[in-house]
Amino acid sequence: MSDQIQFIVEKLNQEPFRKNYNLITFDSLESMQLLQLLNDVLGEIDPKHAVDIREELPEQTAKRMLTLLGILKYKPPGSISDLSAFRQGLVTGSKPVIHPVLHWLLQKTNELKKRAYLARFLVKLEVPAEFLQDDTVADINKQYEELMEAFKNLHKECEQLKTSGLSTAEIRRDISAMEEEKDQLIKRVERLKKRVETVQNHQRMLEIARQLRLEKEREESLAQQKQEQKNQFFHAEQRLQRVQLQLKEMHDAVVDSKPESLMKKLEEEINFNSYLVTEKNPRELQSKKNSTYFLQKVVAEPAMSQSDLNVLETKINEVNAQLNQLIEKRMMKYEPVDSKFSMYRQQASIISRKKEAKAEELKAAKEEMSSAERQMLQKTNQAHELEGSEVLKGDELKHYVNKLRSKNTVYKKKRLEIAEITAEYGILQRTEELLKQRHEAIQQQLQAIEDKKGISGYSYTQEELERVSAVKSEMDEMKGRTLDNMSDMVKKLNSLVAEKKASLAPVIKELRQLRQKCQELTQECDEKKIQYDSCAAGLESNRSALEQEVKGLLEECAQEESNYHYINCMKRNVEIQLQRAKEEMKAYVSPDPQERRKAIREQYTRMILEQENLGKKLREKQKVVRESHGPNMKQMKMWQDFEQLMECKRECFLKQQNQTAIGQVIQEGGKDRLVL
Q: Could you tell me the CA-to-CA distances from 182 to 178, 210, 427, 603 in Å, in that order?
């Protein structure tokens, strides 16, 4: 149930809902809010249902939702077998009813949108049988069913075209290109037939050619299958290597999971780093400084000849011999025979040398490991690029789409160019055949003229002589160049062999000594390896047993921890509910009227009384308005008639005034005439 609610909250927080819920706020929603939320989800699936449920009756809301859920083929869970109980829960906004519906709708939003769209046209209207007796109604119903079937077929074709990804323009171009290729192939087949008909046993040769073509096609298909299997094998090996690498990393991470082992490992790293800082690196730095000093001194001195070098080598040997003698005398003089210091010194020097050698090996191993990690990271990035595991978003996706479009346009242009070149190639091939036919006709005419003159084969013999002479001259030039190249190559090889012999002579002497030393070290290494393998086998068996034990304990710990957190959350919820119930009970039984007014029950009771009083007042007002509606309408009609009567009187009065004014003007004009 918690996973279901988590999924619902995640989907509601995404587009197009963007509710910004969390588990607590979603769980605290009231029944009306849950119903409105369910209605919003249904409105997203079918826009006709995007309404406010407060503006319609609960029965209408439930009927509308049940109708849409029936169209979407929603089946109530097994715990709600009775449809009336499901309907009642949908009316009241019950959480056990609303939550599964929301989970089902949000899981299949896109599929349900398509189903709701199709339901507008494919849900058949049930016409009663008595109405179908009428011919007109029956014809209209038949047309309705035919249009429904046509819509089904058109929708299927539309979906297939959407998934195919082809456009009509591209199809037309492909058809035109294929028709041109077809015409060219037909012409070519006709020409080949004409040429083959003159050959003996052409039917048998055609059959053999057909078998050859079939075998070549089979060979190509087998080669393609072989390549595919090779690719699959290569990808499988890559996946195996990645899995093995992940397994090794997990093993390495689990091996030193205890604090004691981690501390021990850190101490070893600290000791190694301190040894490098305090002993090894200063000694190497001093040796590098000394060698640099001597090299600078050698560079500063003038150039020395071979005799000078020989003199220096003899001096160095003499000084070394004297130094060895002095060391032996000192050892004989200051150290008694029965003393053990010499043995301890030798052991200390051996241990120090071994320590230095192991430090060098460890340093080299670390460098090799770091380089291997870098290579692994590069290979991982290359694998991601080849497999395309990254998802492009935003501007990168737009850039990729634009790049694909540009490539598509280039591809179409190149395709048109190829079609043009193919057509031109057919024309040129036809021209070549015509020229060959003309050449053959001319050759036949020439042969007939030669036969007529009695010199048949003259032109052919002349052409052959010219061709043979040209080939002979080319072969002579090639032989001369080849001999010169071979002589130069032999000289170079002899000089290189002599140089290599001279340079490899001291190396070969040194290599013999190193081989003997290598055999001794190999024998010692084999003995040490046997000891190491036996020790490693014992440690590996102990490690696997400890890994199984640690894995079981970790799983048990994770399970107990999840149970602990779940019980704590449930306990906290119960405590909050108990606290709210105690506060409500305390406020309800309190003798103080102010405290009792704070109780939720009192608040709701007061609100109910206020709403009831308001409803009574509105009903009384409605009654008064209903009783006075008839007389008021009659009075309004009388006033309208009175207004029309007064308007008519006003117009008559204005007309009368205009007529009196005109009469006065006429009378004044008559008086003026009488005076004149």
A: 6, 20, 15, 89
Average pLDDT, the chain: 78
**Please, which contacts does 608-617 make with residues 24 or more away whose CB atoms are closer than 8 Å?**
none
Between 258 and 551, the more confident residue is 551
Query: In this model, does residue 334 exceed pLDDT 70?
Result: no
pLDDT, average across residues 340-360: 71
Q: Does the N-terminal peptide bond of residue 16 adopt cis geometry, omega within 30 degrees of 0?
A: yes
For residue 149, is pLDDT > 80?
yes
pLDDT at 648: 92
Work out the pLDDT band at 613, boundaries 50, 70, 90. Answer: very high
Q: How far apart are the first and last CA of the chain?
A: 118
Please state, in angstroms and rounded to a whole number, the distance separating the CA atoms of residues 594 and 403. 74
Q: Are 262 and 256 in contact (CB under 8 A)?
A: yes
Phi, psi torsion values for 159, nearest 5 degrees: -65, -40
What distance in Å separates the CA atoms of residue 479 and residue 481, rounded to the nearest whole number? 5
The amino acid that residue 170 corresponds to is: E
For the CA atoms of the chain, what is the radius of gyration?
53
Contacts of 206 (CB under 8 A, 6+ apart): 196
Q: From residue 511, how far is each of 172, 246, 503, 536, 616 by CA, in Å?
A: 76, 43, 13, 35, 118
Give the Cα separation of 637 and 63 in Å (integer): 44
Considering the segment(s) 1-123 as one domain, its CATH architecture is: Orthogonal Bundle (1.10)
| Segment holding 227, helix H or strand E | helix 202-255
Q: What is the percent of the chain where pLDDT is above 70? A: 84
d(CA 569, CA 572): 5
DSSP state of 302: P
Question: According to the model, what pLDDT value does residue 611 have?
Answer: 92
Candidates 95, 117, 119; CA nearest to 28 is 95
Give how far the C-alpha of residue 456 lies from the chain's centroid of Cα atoms, to the nearest Å: 78
Task: Kindly report the pTM of this predicted structure.
Answer: 0.28
Task: Give the C-alpha separation, 247 to 242, whole Å.
Answer: 9
How many Å apart are CA 106 and CA 21, to the nearest integer?
15
Paired tokens of 464: 């052959």
Q: Are 418 and 181 in contact (CB under 8 A)?
A: no
CA angle in degrees (0–180, nearest 5) for 200-202-208: 130
29 DSSP assignment: -
| Residue 330 clears pLDDT 80, i.e. is over it | no
Q: pLDDT digits over 420-433, tens only?
A: 888 888 888 888 88
Contacts of residue 300, defined as CB under 8 A and 6 or more positions apart, other chains included, come to: none
**Torsion-angle region of 200 (φ positive above 0: left; ψ -120 to 50: alpha; else: beta):** beta
Looking at residues 43-60, what average pLDDT do you find? 78
Mean of the pLDDT values across residues 576-582?
85
